[in-house]
Design goal:
Elements lengths: L12 E2 L6 E2 H5 L3 E7 L5 H12 L1 H5 L3 E7 L3 H15 L7 E3 L4 H5 L24 E5 L5 E6 L8 H16 L2 E2 L10 E3 L5 H7 L5 E4 L2 E4 L6
Helix pairs in contact: 2-4
Length: 221
């Protein structure tokens, strides 16, 4: 079964381009982004890994670790990384998992349980479901799942925006509206009563409808 928001992200041991690691130990108390790729040496993914490498400092300053996964052996992804650096102008600066037995892909519901055999004998099209992004919180719960088609490059700026929202809403009883950007107005969560909201927001809030209570971003006050 595929994993969804609120599920516990499966732990795993893996060989990576940075050596062996255990996912939970590697993530520690940080947020983590795990994103999958159907095969090494695929064109759209080449652009994605390069772009993500170029904006990794943005994830670092939010306390978010990045890790990629491909069914190719880790050595193959090391070779692919050379092409990424050459064509995208940014060297891969995070681990790429070699999921050569498909175990992690199966645990996350990206490939069916009956997949087996040499991963390099499978085509990217056969692995088309490995185009996922998982944001995992410090509690090891999945906070976001994105699934993209093979022909559409992923928007990692949007992943950063969602992480900003997730980190804000985890620390404050608010939600973020459509098209929200950091520093923008937020919505008081429905779980907060008006009496409790008055204590937190003594200056009140905008209320176009009783169920929409708008306040400034609490981190900018």
């Amino acid at each position: 079964m595929s994993l969804t928001i609120g599920d516990t992200a499966p732990d795993f041991h893996a060989e990576t381009t940075d050596g062996p690691l255990d996912f939970y130990d590697w993530a520690g108390d940080s947020w983590a982004v795990l994103f999958s790729h159907p095969r090494a040496f695929t064109p759209v993914c080449t652009t994605e890994l390069g772009y993500l490498a170029s904006i990794k400092p943005e994830f670092d300053k939010r306390g978010v670790k990045i890790i990629a996964i491909s069914t190719d052996p880790a050595e193959g992804s090391k070779e692919w990384s050379k092409d990424i650096a050459e064509t995208q102008g940014a060297e891969v600066n995070y681990p790429i998992i070699g999921d050569s037995d498909h175990a992690i892909s199966k645990a996350y519901g990206m490939l069916p349980a009956d997949v087996e055999g040499d991963p390099t004998a499978r085509t990217p099209a056969q692995n088309a479901t490995l185009r996922n992004v998982y944001v995992v919180g410090p509690d090891k719960k999945i906070k976001l799942v994105l699934i993209y088609p093979m022909t559409t490059g992923r928007n990692f700026d949007e992943v950063l925006r969602v992480i900003d929202s997730l980190q804000l809403t985890a620390g404050h009883a608010v939600a973020t509206p459509a098209q929200w950007q950091p520093g923008g107005d937020v919505i008081i969560a429905g779980s907060v009563s008006n009496d409790a909201a008055k204590e937190k927001y003594p200056d009140g809030w905008d209320e176009p409808k009783p169920y929409i209570r708008i306040v400034p971003d609490p981190t900018t006050a």
